[in-house]
Design goal:
The chain is an alpha/beta fold and 468 residues long. It has two domains: 182 residues, NAD(P)-binding Rossmann-like Domain (Rossmann fold), CATH 3.40.50; 199 residues, 2-Layer Sandwich (Dihydrodipicolinate Reductase, domain 2). Helices cover 30% and strands 18% of the residues. The chain is built from 15 helices and 17 strands. Helix 7 runs antiparallel to helix 14 and helix 10 packs antiparallel against helix 14. The longest helix is centred in the last third of the chain and has 20 residues. It is globular. The two termini are 39 Å apart.
Length: 468
């Protein structure tokens, strides 16, 4: 188990001092494995699918946080055929929470956990919520995050931050206005790998970088469909389909959309680029201090108005930044790959996810989620000592956010950091859908040469749903 490194550390030391003077019950003083109810962060979950269940499993590791509410339109869903496996939904996740806290004396004072179909009702009724964790499909990220932040709740939101470019800008604005602690769920941003990439580049180990390639095998969620299903299916028992649809135009239920394959539909998801670009492109954006691209263009294996492509290539051009030169960034997905780096030794292959940063004096190959960065060839690793540390280290992505919500430093991937990157990433989908090389005005969220891109940059919302 893990406890806070700030206020909890002080309380632990105070407890030790007091124990030397008198015998006081541990539940009064606190200590390792205990947090007083007044020192716990009250958390709620919005979106109790496969990923939402994972978030709860992570959050309950910490004694100074507790789950007190869950919201999801689906009572129970079978994920046995999909990536997450098992059973999820608000019923199974509620049971997980109750089983955990009900069996632990260290959670004395836990107020219990209630479940709701509608997150809006939960936010209205559960006044004690301090922070929310959002793991809905992409199309509901913005409306849920903004509703919570406007009530002063801290927000952890899974990647991508939003479904559209405009939503991303607005969510980051509201976070600043509300002065709440935020974190986007690109977990590698809180790890060692991304920091090492930055420090290699900033210390000049590979020289100026003008070329970056990143990729992922992820995709094919909607396959073999390439258009909207012609027939409607009965809504599963225990599911409120109208609530699940939320802010986007209503359509009949079909298992091709939910509980899992929503990511393969433009109406609900953001393709492999939105899914994995937030992980695998992350080292490039942070290390190279990338802001708005000047141009973006994309090509794909097939395009229609309903389903995302099976594979795509997106090309970004970024201007010079300070003493860093202009850089070209290329994204590949659906099994497409960049050229093999000439420095890579025979027998070593590119994994299913990763990024290559090519400098004038060397090349970095990094795995997906910022994992295991290496100078290549391997002989370069032996020749170069570790670079000087230039970035603070944190104790994991969930701990990072909890500490920020309790008054610590801003979390590593807070919305001011994650927002500009996600804007640029999602712009790649706009380029694919318009079929044009977009000339981008980042300040004003406009494609200067493609007014038809506006409908992909900022979408309309169903009556009763808006960004507030």
């Amino acid at each position: 188990m893990v406890e806070s490194t700030s206020r909890r550390g002080f309380l632990g030391r105070a407890a030790g001092t007091a124990a030397a003077l008198t015998v006081v019950p541990r539940h009064i003083l606190g200590g390792t494995g205990f947090a007083a109810p007044s020192d716990r962060l009250n958390l709620a979950l919005i979106g109790a699918g496969g990923r939402g269940k994972n978030l709860v499993q992570e959050a309950i590791r910490f004694f100074d946080a507790q789950i007190i509410a869950i919201a999801d339109p689906t009572e129970e869903a079978d994920y046995s055929k999909f990536y997450y496996r098992g059973v999820s939904g608000r019923g199974p996740v509620l049971k997980l929470v109750k089983d955990h806290y009900g069996s632990r004396p260290a959670t004395e004072g836990w107020p219990g956990c209630k479940d709701y179909a509608d997150f809006r009702k939960m936010l209205d009724e559960e006044k004690a919520i301090d922070g929310v964790m959002i793991a809905t499909p992409d199309h509901a990220h913005a409306v849920t995050a903004i509703a919570a932040m406007k009530l002063g709740k801290h927000v952890y939101c899974e990647k991508p931050l939003t479904r559209t470019v405009y939503e991303c800008r607005r969510v980051a604005e509201v976070a600043r206005e509300a002065k709440v602690a935020t974190q986007m769920g690109n977990q590698g941003h809180s790890g060692e790998g991304i920091r090492l990439v930055c420090e290699w580049i900033w210390s000049g180990t590979i020289g100026p970088v003008r070329e970056v390639h990143s990729w992922s095998d992820t995709g094919r969620w909607a396959y073999p469909l390439e258009g909207r299903p012609s027939e409607a299916q009965p809504v599963p028992k225990g599911m409120d389909w109208d609530l699940w649809i939320g802010p986007v135009p209503i359509r009949p239920y079909h298992i091709a959309y939910a509980p899992y394959n929503w990511r393969g539909w433009w109406q609900f998801g953001t393709s492999a680029l939105g899914d994995m670009g937030c992980h695998n492109l992350d080292p490039g954006f942070l290390a190279l201090k990338l802001g708005y691209p000047t141009t973006v263009e994309g090509s794909c294996t097939g395009l229609n108005d309903e389903t995302v492509p099976h594979g795509s290539i997106i090309r970004y051009e970024f201007p010079a930044r300070g003493d860093m030169p202009p850089v070209k960034v290329t994204w590949y997905d659906g099994g497409l790959r960049p050229p093999r780096p000439p420095e890579l030794e025979p027998g070593r292959n590119l994994d299913g996810n990763g990024i290559i940063l090519i400098g004038e004096k060397g090349t970095i190959l990094c795995g997906g989620w910022s994992n295991d960065p290496r100078l290549i060839p391997e002989s370069r690793m032996k020749e170069n000592p570790p670079p000087p540390r230039m970035l603070p280290r944190v104790s994991g992505w969930m701990r990072d956010w909890i500490d920020a919500a309790k008054g610590g430093n801003p979390s590593s991937s807070n919305f001011d950091v994650a927002g500009p990157m996600v804007e640029a990433i999602l712009l790649g989908n706009v380029a694919v859908r318009t079929g044009k090389k977009l000339e981008w005005d980042g300040e004003n969220l406009k494609a200067k040469n493609a007014p038809e891109a506006d409908r992909f940059i900022r979408s309309e919302y169903r009556k009763g749903w808006d960004l507030g």
